[in-house]
Amino acid sequence: MYLELKHLTVDFNGFLAVHDVSLGIEKGETRVIIGPNGAGKTTIIDMITGKTKPTQGEILLNGVNIAGKESYDISNTYGIGRKFQGPNVFDEMSVYENLEVALSGHTSLWQAFTYRRTRAVDVRLEEILSQINLTEQRDMLPRFLSHGQRQWLEMGMILAQNPAIITLDEPAAGMTDDETFKTGEMIKSVMKDKTVIVVEHDMDFIKQIAKTVTVLNQGEILAEGTYEEVSHNAEVIRVYLKTDDTEEEEAESV
Amino acid sequence: MKNIKSILENMTIDKYIALFIFIGLLILPLLSSRYSVQIFGKYITYTILALGLDILWGSTGLMNLGFAIFFGLGSYIFGISMAIQKGLPAFMSFGGLTELPWLYVPLQSPAVAALLCIVIPGLVALILGYFVFTSKIKGVFYSIITLAFVALFELFITDQQIYTGGASGVNGIPTGLMTLRLFGSKISIFDWYYIAFASLVIIYMFCVWLNHSRFGKIIHSIRDNEMRVQFLGYNPAVFKIAIFTISAAIAGFAGLLYVPMSSFVSIENSGVAFSTMIIIWLAVGGRGNLTGAMAGALLVSFLQNILSGYFGGMWQVVLGVGLILIVMVLPKGLIGSLIDWQYMRRIHGRQHANPGSDPVPPARKVEV
């Protein structure tokens, strides 16, 4: 097993955000984690990327326990990248510069002083710009981009970072249907060689990208399987899909 | 020629003002008295000091309430070095010392002292920075710690009278350092003025380069979104320690240059009050664009001089009211507001030139 979460528990002053979760992810897999609000999805991403330290349990990457390490170490040494919930980019720098700062292999103090924008760097960044459909917005400040474009910019930053494992926290949140579809295709095409962990709500989007889906509820794993299996699982329908549908219906009726 | 023209057209307003400041300072000694040269020489050292704080506060977002420590270290080291050139200075012999303390022996060489003016503040900042930033002290807590440091420094200097001159400071330093010889000739106050001026230009260029380098982009990113930076694989503590050290070394060097301009070193220019003054310069001029720091330092120091002439003891009140007004009306400072104004004008110009075009403005920073 490539990435293995073993009996992870997070206790926030008595509130068990995640309780005894074990999860195995193969190399090159795209895994989607779904679940209602408060199910512990983001907390799991937080632990994998070093933002939150698990109270108990281990996170094994190729057999090495990375639980509790600093986030920059996890990103640098272990090659795990993260896209935050809601676009989290640098608003005072142009789109191109955002990608440039994210570029991997130049993260030490010494490299920060000796870095040169070489031809190879430029070619790479232009390639990423076209992958995320932002070539024309190259010199714009991110705050003038649409919400969807900002999400893509952050995806681009992760591509520039070039990690082995990519974690995406609701990459399609707040996007139009068209943008959501494009995002799904982006994940399937440019991230196809990577191990990708996605936290999502949007069922169409999940159907588009996922082979294996893990369903969380109240900090525990409820079901795991293909999209078809999970979406027909009676328990899942009861706690998650049904409530989601009724919410949607309510939203539509409003 | 065309190249120069396009450079001038693309220059932002802050660069023009910086150029104006440099030209003004360059020709000033030709038009004024020896006294003004000394006064403006002092202001030049203040602008260097302000640049040092700007790369720390403006570029990295680390507001330092005790920045004068490093200026003080530089000026004390060089001041004591000058004071001991002709035997034991008065404050030491009155204190009961019969020979030079071993710690001060290396300072007998002005060259060594000059080097230490940069190295010691840098080293102190490196050590302080290491403890503060690796223990992840952030925001207002960091600022309060810097304030505590400067208060301690002030206490220490005042307390160690035999070694530092205490509350009355280190005096007896010849103005313009007539005792100091460089390649056999005496260094006059005019020479020192131009040494300080050249240093200012070089340090300004260095800061511009720093802000545009990858290092600069990383410290800007730390200022704007520290958490995001960590997840990209950068350890923010390392970069904060680095910029803290660089800015302290610049401040120490400014302290060195201050000595010949004032011929007197005291806690007045290294304590809590002076630290606050540096903050005021940057608040008035604006942070993060370097020119604001320089303009703020020059303007406030100049006004301080004029106002104390007109209003006597009341000058601080008049200056204070002015400062409050500026901070309230122009929170980005004078230069910061000018940059914003020019930016908005350029956007409107663009839209006017291509009506119906996309009204989305380009990036503010036009870079190669």
Automatic annotation (TrEMBL), chain A:
Please verify whether the record's keywords include Nucleotide-binding.
yes
GO cellular component terms listed in the entry, alphabetical order: plasma membrane
Query: What domain of life?
Result: Bacteria
**Keywords in UniProt for this one?**
ATP-binding, Nucleotide-binding, Transport
GO MF terms here are:
ATP binding; ATP hydrolysis activity
In this protein, which residues make up the domain named ABC transporter? 3-243
Gene3D superfamilies (UniProt xref) = P-loop containing nucleotide triphosphate hydrolases (3.40.50.300)
| KW Protein biosynthesis (keyword) present | no
- What protein am I looking at? Urea transport system ATP-binding protein
Which species does this protein come from? Megasphaera paucivorans
* Lineage of producing organism: Bacteria, Bacillati, Bacillota, Negativicutes, Veillonellales
Automatic annotation (TrEMBL), chain B:
Keywords attached to this Swiss-Prot or TrEMBL record, sorted alphabetically, are: Cell membrane, Membrane, Transmembrane, Transmembrane helix
The highest taxon in the source lineage is Bacteria
Membrane topology recorded in Swiss-Prot or TrEMBL = Multi-pass membrane protein
> What is one term from the GO cellular component aspect held by the record?
plasma membrane
According to the record, the segments passing through the membrane are: 16-35, 55-80, 111-133, 140-157, 192-210, 231-258, 264-284, 291-311, 317-341
Q: Which Pfam family name is an example for this entry?
A: BPD_transp_2
Q: What is its main location?
A: membrane
Q: What is this protein called?
A: Urea transport system permease protein
Q: From what organism does this protein derive?
A: Megasphaera paucivorans
